[in-house]
Design a protein that fits this description.
- By secondary structure, the chain is of the alpha/beta class.
- The protein has one domain: 3-Layer(aba) Sandwich (Aspartate Aminotransferase, domain 2).
- Helix content is 35%, strand content 13%.
- The chain contains ten helices and twelve strands.
- A seven-stranded mixed β-sheet has the order 1-9-8-5-4-2-3, with helices on both faces.
- A hairpin with a 2-residue loop joins strand 6 and strand 7.
- Helix 1 packs antiparallel against helix 8, helix 3 crosses helix 4 and helix 3 packs across helix 7.
- The longest helix has 29 residues.
- The protein is globular, with a radius of gyration of 20 Å.
- It starts with 31 loop residues before the first helix and ends in an 11-residue tail after the last strand.
- About 2% of the residues have low confidence.
């Protein structure tokens, strides 16, 4: 039986506001006793990989997200599993240029040719109009939509509907989207697969790790085999993307805190940042961002930099005209916003 978690909390309503500009990993130290208890379970089990804690992490994520989940040692493992399942080798994969290089590099590693798509100024995410234009031109096998900075791409519904109609396998890159919802619907639930990252600085972190969610039983089984060299039949061309039980234990604890952390960051943003930054990224009605990044469109004195300061099409040497993507790289900044939970009493 898993140890119970401490009660949830919200940011206190007082004149003493937390120092949200001081870097911190999004971990509540009141969870340390529970985490240590879970690690003890892993040690005593004599099963340090593919054990009950990995299953508990997957179950917790599935319960939160609403789709079955498969845990990986990294975002890349989940992305590669989805791409290989979609049989993109020798085919085209559409990808926004305003993303981390992991996104196009995963497609390249899966044997695909990447064609880049422009973005929108309002959400920094892929443009539906340019997506359709590139799809009609290149006839892609699969495509990525990347949810930037913690919110959901504003045109995800149109893109997903178009992909369903055209038979394009859609992967949602949810590496930033922990805690994000739109009218109660989680990121990762519009496409054929959603892939998450739990790297060290993410809103929900396990140090390293990833998760794939999907409504497809076939992809679910493929992903489970892919992360472990294709075992048991070796019919899947997998590699080692297993998650350790110790990492999974952090995931169990962090998943339980996810909505609380997102709510805390949103409350802190409303109380301390919004009135200072009228030229900020504004969300549509009904959308909640996990606020991995607090994005503004005016230079700020203190910034954590850009979400991405160099578009992928330039890094990969593609001679393309993606004017909005280039504009975004020059005209947005990120204001520090870090989760600062209550201190553990001495």
């Amino acid at each position: 039986m898993l140890a119970p978690r401490p009660s949830s909390r919200t940011m206190p309503h007082s004149s003493l506001q937390p120092a949200i500009d001081q870097f911190a990993i999004g971990f509540d130290r009141r969870d340390l006793p529970r985490l240590h208890a879970l690690w003890d379970i892993a040690i005593e089990s004599e099963r340090w990989s593919e054990g009950t804690l990995t299953e508990s992490f997957e179950s917790a994520w599935a319960a939160s997200n609403g789709l079955p989940a498969v845990a990986f040692g990294s975002w890349s493992g989940g992305a590669l599993a989805a791409l290989e399942f979609a049989e993109v080798r020798g085919e085209v994969v559409l990808c926004p240029s305003n993303t981390f290089m992991a996104t196009p590099l995963a497609a390249v590693a899966a044997g695909a040719r990447v064609e880049f798509v422009d973005a929108n100024r309002d959400d920094l995410c892929v443009s539906f109009a340019d997506f359709v234009a590139k799809a009609e031109r290149f006839k892609p096998r699969a495509a990525f939509v990347v949810h930037i900075g913690g919110h959901i791409a504003f045109e995800i519904e149109q893109i997903a509907e178009y992909c369903r109609a055209e038979g394009i396998f859609l992967i949602e890159d949810c590496a930033h989207a922990h805690g994000a919802t739109w009218n109660g619907r989680r990121a990762g639930t519009w496409g054929d697969a959603g892939v998450w990252s739990f790297a060290a600085t993410k809103t929900i972190s396990t140090g390293e790790g990833g998760m794939l969610v999907t409504a497809s039983d076939d992809l679910l089984a493929y992903a489970q085999s892919y992360r472990n060299y294709g075992k048991p039949s070796y019919s899947v061309p997998g590699l080692n993307f297993r998650l350790s039980e110790f990492t999974a234990a952090i995931g169990v604890v962090q998943t339980e805190r996810m909505d609380e952390i997102a709510a805390w960051k949103n409350e802190a943003a409303r109380a301390q940042l919004d009135h200072l930054h009228p030229s900020r990224l504004v969300l549509p009605d009904g959308m909640i961002s996990g606020l991995y990044k607090y994005i503004v469109f005016d230079p700020v004195e203190r910034s954590t930099g850009k979400v991405y300061d160099e578009p992928c099409h330039r890094l990969m040497g593609h001679a393309l005209d993606l004017p909005v993507t280039d504009w975004i790289a020059e005209n947005h900044w990120c204001v520090p916003l870090y989760y600062q939970p209550e201190e553990v009493p001495a």
